[in-house]
């Protein structure tokens, strides 16, 4: 029997090239991407980088997500191909083939198809491996060369995952054949989704789930909480999307059908009835297209925003090449540490030939708290009775940062010559409205001050690093005549007295990186007042930039791969939907011709339906992106302290690009639809 089944299996694969061609493309692309990700995640050169283990962990996580996504797309393609071929399997059963023969035939087909696809996929992966590694090295701006040698363990890992996928396809298809009788197999390809009895209830539930998901995404204000809420919102919107496409669309169409003034018009009568049938049959597939589009939109938008916005974020976060700081918590030391820090940084620069320039220092107090109108109250701290540790609440959406600097230091930094009396201040508020700028009074820690001038910028942000920028949006600056006069008012609040010395370097990037290896030598010798909680920090911008870009570059690279696999799944799903719609419409076309409709009217009606069906997913996907934008921007700004414009412009560009891609895929796959329909006209 095997002598008959093997040639029959090969003939079936050739005959159904229209189904297996896109399936093979998805299989080959998924395997090639997976192989390259494996070679990258386990590349031995990455371990030698600073922060290498973290990068490898991120890439390994990306590899798992990529493998799961690729498998899901292949399972979907396999399910569609099997459904289209169930009639064929059923006919074989009616003609005398037993169930075991059908299982053997299916097993041979999957083995040949999977084996050839895996072979081509791995060969493609090996061929483009050097290009992928070079692209990753370029994105990461790595100074070292990644290992491009062929490693057998890469191949075995990839083959193991392919074998698991192959076995899953065998099990799934065997179960489908085993549970259906030949006549059921014949009818299976024509079967749509079951007619729901209470579609309006499902529609309301779907609308409610999606609405609540949108509410969570749009109402969250805290960046840390956004990460936790994000997954819940995604689950709600996903469930709501499936219910809306399955039940919501049918409920709307039935409502239109019930309106006689609308329904009993020639242009609406046929299209409305057919759309009800289409949406009932294809609701899950269209929801899948919508969600794949959404995933591609969000992944690419976030990845591109991170990659393009990180450089400017680093420059804002770390305005100078070197900064050495002493941060005294909750108290102010009796000795000015600026001179000591300057000496330490100067000696460090001379020792490692850094050619330091623009060296300067500043001392300011940074307070976390909240505004109540024009009254700022510092966040209270308390001592834990059991541990003796000082504790305070985490910042929330109403939190603000108040930086307080003396007039002498501000004039020194700005080159100005402001004069202030004891109760006068200079004031900057990055969230001040036009009405706020007319206000002439501010209260801090119970003390009233007269605002002499509203400053137009926060000078400190251009001089010293501010670690609150990525989780507190509201930032202010207060310039007082005497810093010591306000210190006592802040007792018991969450504040830091920060001494910072900073400088730029004219040395090469490599020299600055090399100097970062010796930071601990300086931190061991800086002056610390005993009895006061203090944290010393020595930051080298070159080192921070490399670490950031390596991590962000890895995330961006994962985003590119995931977006590629999402778009592949999107194109495949649209193509298969065009095929299924074409097969349905070919028979419907004949029926409509027999009842007297002209070819032009039929084509117009069907094209109208196809346009509605296929463009509803991308429209809803764009709505999902708009709903996710606020939460996405909070998370991105937490990671990289980005400006809103650094996120908005890439998001708009990505939305336009993927909409264009969607439209092109629709036009290209429409040719297959036209061929099927026209073949019976």
From TrEMBL:
The answer to keyword Cell membrane applying to this record is yes
Could you tell me the membrane topology recorded for this protein? Multi-pass membrane protein
Q: Where are the transmembrane segments?
A: 20-42, 54-77, 107-133, 153-178, 198-217, 223-245, 284-308, 551-576, 612-635, 647-668
Q: Name one GO cellular component term.
A: plasma membrane
Where is this protein primarily located? membrane
Supply the alphabetized keyword list: Cell membrane, Membrane, Transmembrane, Transmembrane helix, Transport
One GO biological process term is:
transmembrane transport
The domain of life is Bacteria
Query: Which stretches make up the ABC3 transporter permease C-terminal domain?
Result: 63-182
Q: What subcellular locations does the record give? A: Cell membrane
> What PANTHER family does UniProt report for this protein, alphabetically?
ABC TRANSPORTER PERMEASE, ABC TRANSPORTER PERMEASE-RELATED-RELATED
Which family is this sequence assigned to? Belongs to the ABC-4 integral membrane protein family.
What protein does this entry describe? Efflux ABC transporter, permease protein
Organism ancestry: Bacteria, Bacillati, Bacillota, Bacilli, Lactobacillales
């Amino acid at each position: 029997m095997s002598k008959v089944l093997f040639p029959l299996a090969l003939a079936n694969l050739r005959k159904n090239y229209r189904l297996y061609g896109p399936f093979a493309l998805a299989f080959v692309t998924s395997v090639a991407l997976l192989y390259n990700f494996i070679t990258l995640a386990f590349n031995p050169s990455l371990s030698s980088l600073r922060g290498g283990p973290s990068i490898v962990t991120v890439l390994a996580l990306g590899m798992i997500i990529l493998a799961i996504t690729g498998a899901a797309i292949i399972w979907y393609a396999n399910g569609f191909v099997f459904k289209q071929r169930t009639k064929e399997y059923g006919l074989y059963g009616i003609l005398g083939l037993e169930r075991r023969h059908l299982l053997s035939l299916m097993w041979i087909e999957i083995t040949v198809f999977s084996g050839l696809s895996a072979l081509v996929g791995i060969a493609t992966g090996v061929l483009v491996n050097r290009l992928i590694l070079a692209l990753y090295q370029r994105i990461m701006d790595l100074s070292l060369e990644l290992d491009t040698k062929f490693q057998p363990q890469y191949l075995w890992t990839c083959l193991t995952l392919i074998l698991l996928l192959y076995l899953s396809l065998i099990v799934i298809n065997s179960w489908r054949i085993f549970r259906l009788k030949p006549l059921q197999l014949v009818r299976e390809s024509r079967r749509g989704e079951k007619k729901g009895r209470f579609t309006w209830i499902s529609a309301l539930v779907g609308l409610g789930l999606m609405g609540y998901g949108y509410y969570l995404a749009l109402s969250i204000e805290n960046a840390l909480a956004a990460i936790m809420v994000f997954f819940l919102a995604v689950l709600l919107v996903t469930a709501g999307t499936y219910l809306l496409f399955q039940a919501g669309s049918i409920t709307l169409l039935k409502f239109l059908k019930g309106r006689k003034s609308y329904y009993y018009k020639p242009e609406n009568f046929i299209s409305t009835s057919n759309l009800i049938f289409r949406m009932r049959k294809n609701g899950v597939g269209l929801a899948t297209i919508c969600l794949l589009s959404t995933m591609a939109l969000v992944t690419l938008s976030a990845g591109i925003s991170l990659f393009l916005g990180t450089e400017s974020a680093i420059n804002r976060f770390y305005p100078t090449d070197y900064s050495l700081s002493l941060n005294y918590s909750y108290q102010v030391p009796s000795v000015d540490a600026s001179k000591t820090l300057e000496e330490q940084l100067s000696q460090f620069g001379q020792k490692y030939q850094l050619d330091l320039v623009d060296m300067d220092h500043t001392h300011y107090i940074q307070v976390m708290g909240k505004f109540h109108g024009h009254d700022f109250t510092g966040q209270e701290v308390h001592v834990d009775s059991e541990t003796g540790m000082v504790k305070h609440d985490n910042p929330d959406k109403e939190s603000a940062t108040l930086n307080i600097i003396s007039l002498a230091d501000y004039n020194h930094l700005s080159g100005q010559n402001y004069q202030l009396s004891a109760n006068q201040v200079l004031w900057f508020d990055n969230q001040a409205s036009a009405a706020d700028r007319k206000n002439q009074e501010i209260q801090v820690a119970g003390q009233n001050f007269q605002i002499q001038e509203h400053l137009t910028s926060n000078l400190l942000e251009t001089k010293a690093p501010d670690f609150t920028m990525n989780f507190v949006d509201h930032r202010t600056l207060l310039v007082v005549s005497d810093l010591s006069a306000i210190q006592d008012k802040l007792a018991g609040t969450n504040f830091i007295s920060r001494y910072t010395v900073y400088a730029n370097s004219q040395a090469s990037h490599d020299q600055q990186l090399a100097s970062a290896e010796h930071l601990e030598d300086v931190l061991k010798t800086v002056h610390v007042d005993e009895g006061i909680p203090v944290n010393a920090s020595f930051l080298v911008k070159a080192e921070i930039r490399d670490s950031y870009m390596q991590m962000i570059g890895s995330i961006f690279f994962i985003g590119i791969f995931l977006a590629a696999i999402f778009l592949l799944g999107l194109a495949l799903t649209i193509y298969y939907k065009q095929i299924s719609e074409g097969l349905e419409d070919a028979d419907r076309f004949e029926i409509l011709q027999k009842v007297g409709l002209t070819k032009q009217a039929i084509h117009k009606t069907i094209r109208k339906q196809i346009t509605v069906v296929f463009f509803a997913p991308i429209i809803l996907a764009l709505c999902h992106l708009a709903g996710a934008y606020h939460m996405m921007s909070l998370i991105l700004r937490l990671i990289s302290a980005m400006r809103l414009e650094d996120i908005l412009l890439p998001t708009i560009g990505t939305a336009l690009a993927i909409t264009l891609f969607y439209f092109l895929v629709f036009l290209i796959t429409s040719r297959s639809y036209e061929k099927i329909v026209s073949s019976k006209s």
